[in-house]
Every structure is written in C-alpha cells, then in structure tokens.
C-alpha cells in the first residue's frame, strides 16, 4: 500500500510542478478548432451518406 500512496503523491507533485498547463485563451482556441473540425467532418459524412442513399435508391428502382 505504501507504493500506491507514494505513486499518488509523486503524481500530484509532478502535475503541479512539471506540467505546463495551457492558458484559458489557448483552451478557447483549441475548443473552437475542435468544434469547427467536428462540424466539417459531420457535414462530409452526412453528405456522403445522402449521396450513397440517393444512388442506392436509383439503382434499386431500376
């Protein structure tokens, strides 16, 4: 049990001292980038789905 508590204590200390945390502005920029990329990806996948569905309807209705 001592190893576990030592690991947790050292992990907390490392997170406080050795990790460089992003600023709030950096987090906002990253969040906007992820949101825009997700929307573009959703539009591309949705468009592909619509086109494939349309093509399949045309093929099956022949």
Automatic annotation (TrEMBL):
The chain crosses the membrane at residues 32-52. It is found in: Cell membrane; Membrane. Keywords: Cell membrane, Membrane, Protein transport, Translocation, Transmembrane, Transmembrane helix, Transport. One of its GO terms (biological process) is protein targeting. Belongs to the SecE/SEC61-gamma family. Component of the Sec protein translocase complex. Heterotrimer consisting of SecY, SecE and SecG subunits. The heterotrimers can form oligomers, although 1 heterotrimer is thought to be able to translocate proteins. Interacts with the ribosome. Interacts with SecDF, and other proteins may be involved. Interacts with SecA. Essential subunit of the Sec protein translocation channel SecYEG. Clamps together the 2 halves of SecY. May contact the channel plug during translocation. This is Protein translocase subunit SecE. It comes from Flexibacter flexilis DSM 6793.
């Amino acid at each position: 049990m001592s190893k576990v508590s030592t690991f947790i204590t050292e992990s907390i200390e490392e997170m406080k001292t050795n990790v460089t945390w992003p600023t709030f502005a950096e987090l906002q920029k990253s969040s906007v980038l992820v949101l825009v990329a997700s929307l573009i990806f959703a539009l591309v996948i949705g468009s592909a789905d619509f086109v494939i569905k349309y093509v399949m309807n045309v093929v099956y209705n022949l």
